[in-house]
């Protein structure tokens, strides 16, 4: 179990493996020096000695406490350094922080999950959790979009999901190549063909801000109530503890009150899609 101290003092974790998912995305398999627990959708701060830290949502199953995976897109200073890590090196983990997915509220329902780019990271953790208790849900549909086929991540996991009872996977890419046999276009086109019982369904959206915005608008147009659309929000963060104010979104501290919110909760807050 993560003790409370790991909110402030990083727990050491050894890099066991580095998986290249796409030209810009890598997954680190970490072995913490003691057990580390989190709920799916909560996030950690990954610390690199001498460089700084950055928030990431674990992409592994929350049911595993002896290993942790984080999937990192290269965007700047800290993430560039993370991409240079090699097996055997040691990083720090602070957390877990925030409020994750309220999975109990999904029991008995159909779940549609809309993801894009590196937004698949928290979604994969959620899917591992849902697979472990799959008899509690009617069905789970993943709609995932990326820019190109080579940027589609977690290919072995997607294959496994396609073979799992009650789970369906649909993918689209903005620009297909000749080997691509799935849809071409933005991820919202996948929602058009879905056969969902919206009255008994919830939606989860995670990805780049523009995808979150248009995904949410499409779900609203399809008839999903604002209270049944769950969004995982990303804001610049520092303390992770509701102290520094870096992550404020209107009246909310995203680090403490989120990062998972319903659309109903945040729809009137400023700049939610920035
Ligand atoms: C709760 C949470 C969970 C996240 N989970 C993941 C994850 O699983 N995988 C992943 O790859 N990324 C995730 N991110 C985003 C990740 O934290 C940022 O990409 C990272 O902090 C950038 O650090 P940097 O030093 O490399 O970039 P910087 O050099 O600081 O900045 C480079 C660019 O990235 C932008 N940026 C910086 N911080 C953020 C941020 N927090 N969100 C969005 N853009 C940012 C800057 O505006 C700038 O344009 C998450 C962010 C949050 C808040
Ligand atoms: S990150 Fe410091 S208040 Fe949220």
Report on the structure:
The chain is an alpha/beta fold. Helices cover 20% and strands 31% of the residues. The chain contains seven helices and 15 strands. The strands form three sheets. The protein has a seven-stranded mixed β-sheet with strand order 10-9-8-7-11-12-15, sandwiched between helices. The chain has a six-stranded antiparallel β-sheet with strand order 4-3-6-1-2-5, with helices on one face. A two-stranded antiparallel sheet has the order 13-14. The radius of gyration is 18 Å and the shape is globular. The protein starts with 10 loop residues before the first strand and ends in an 8-residue tail after the last helix. The mean pLDDT is 95. Bound molecules: flavin-adenine dinucleotide (FAD) and FE2/S2 (inorganic) cluster (FES). Residues 43, 54-57, 71-73, 75-79, 118, 121, 234-237, 259 line the site of flavin-adenine dinucleotide.
Topology:
Elements: E1 11-22, E2 25-32, E3 43-48, E4 52-56, E5 68-73, H1 77-83, E6 90-97, E7 110-116, H2 120-132, E8 139-146, H3 155-162, E9 167-173, E10 183-184, H4 188-192, E11 201-206, H5 209-222, E12 229-232, E13 248-249, E14 252-253, H6 254-257, E15 260-262, H7 263-266
The structure holds flavin-adenine dinucleotide and FE2/S2 (inorganic) cluster.
Q: Roughly how many Å apart are the termini?
A: 35 Å
Bound molecules: flavin-adenine dinucleotide, FE2/S2 (inorganic) cluster
Major beta sheet summary: 7 strands, mixed
Number of DSSP strands? 15
**Bulk shape:** globular
> Uncertain runs with pLDDT below 50, 5 residues or more?
none
How do the helices and strands follow one another from N- to C-terminus? EEEEEHEEHEHEEHEHEEEHEH
Order of strands across the biggest sheet? 10-9-8-7-11-12-15
> Could you tell me the radius of gyration in angstroms?
18 Å
Figure out the total of helices. Answer: 7
Helix content: 10-25%
Average the pLDDT over all residues and give the rounded result: 95
